[in-house]
Amino acid sequence: MIPVVDIEVDPSFPANVALGLPPEDEIDEEGYGFFRGVWDIGDVSHEEAVAVVKEERHLSNLVDRAALTHVDFEAIASALESNDPDSLPAGFVAEHPESEIVELVGDGYTAEPLLGSLELGVAGLSYALTSIGCFTAASCRSHLSDRSWSPRPVVYFAAERPTVHWLTPLVRDTGCGFDDGSSHGRLLIVEAPSITNFMDLASRILRQVERQSPRR
């Protein structure tokens, strides 16, 4: 029951968008691009990205199987992201006391944060992009609530031109697209109808790296 947004995406190379990494002196503890509640996730190794992508796929499958509606999906995903049992759908704990979801959410105080404290559906792509030399500035999986600042799943990132060229066929083949993020600085947006597309793109990036690095 993973939500899908009815949008058209453009997978073509963003020819008229300024490319390149942001200057180091413009990146601080709150990241880059005038976003709120973001941070620089720092250097990410290929192995770290693989681990996050694998964890994200597992969690999304758990939520997908447990959710009967898109509202349920949002509630369960939010509970996992914030380790907040109160965010679970009403009666979920009583109905599924042995669920792995209940175990992972915990009691709200002692559970370990999941996915590097990023959102389900955008965490894997953020880590995959960072592992190939991009700078990820902000992300949102899109929420069924007033706290959603994007109507579709997005990741804002900066990258050098050769890296974006390398990414373009992968973006196209996974049903994702590019958009202009320059209102927040020297940034691109990768967007998709669903986080399923993002998870596919993250996996495709990592598999391609194992064959041919974009930095070579």
Distance between the termini: 39 Å
Broad shape:
globular
Number of helices: 7
Task: Give the strand order of the largest sheet, numbering strands 1, 2, ... along the chain.
Answer: 1-2-4-3
Structural class: alpha+beta
**What percent of residues are in strands?**
5-15%
Low-confidence runs (pLDDT<50, min 5 residues)?
none
Largest sheet: 4 strands, antiparallel
- What is the H-and-E element order? HHHHHEEHEEH
Binned, the helix content reads 25-40%
Average pLDDT metric: 91
As a whole number of angstroms, the C-alpha radius of gyration is 17 Å
- How many beta-strand runs? 4
Task: Describe what this molecule looks like in 3D.
The protein has 216 residues and is of the alpha+beta class. Helix content is 38%, strand content 9%. The protein is built from seven helices and four strands, in the order αααααββαββα. The chain has helices at 46-66, 70-82, 92-95, 100-105, 123-131, 161-173, 195-211, and strands at 135-140, 154-158, 177-180, 188-191. Strands 1-2-4-3 form a four-stranded antiparallel β-sheet, with helices on one face. β3 (177-180) and β4 form a beta hairpin. α1 (46-66) runs antiparallel to α5 (123-131), α1 runs antiparallel to α7 (195-211) and α5 (123-131) runs parallel beside α7. The longest helix has 21 residues, at 46-66. The model has no long low-confidence stretch (mean pLDDT 91).
Question: What is this structure, in a nutshell?
Answer:
This protein has 7 helices and 4 strands, in the order αααααββαββα. With 216 residues, the chain is an alpha+beta fold. The chain has a 4-stranded antiparallel sheet with strand order 1-2-4-3, with helices on one face.
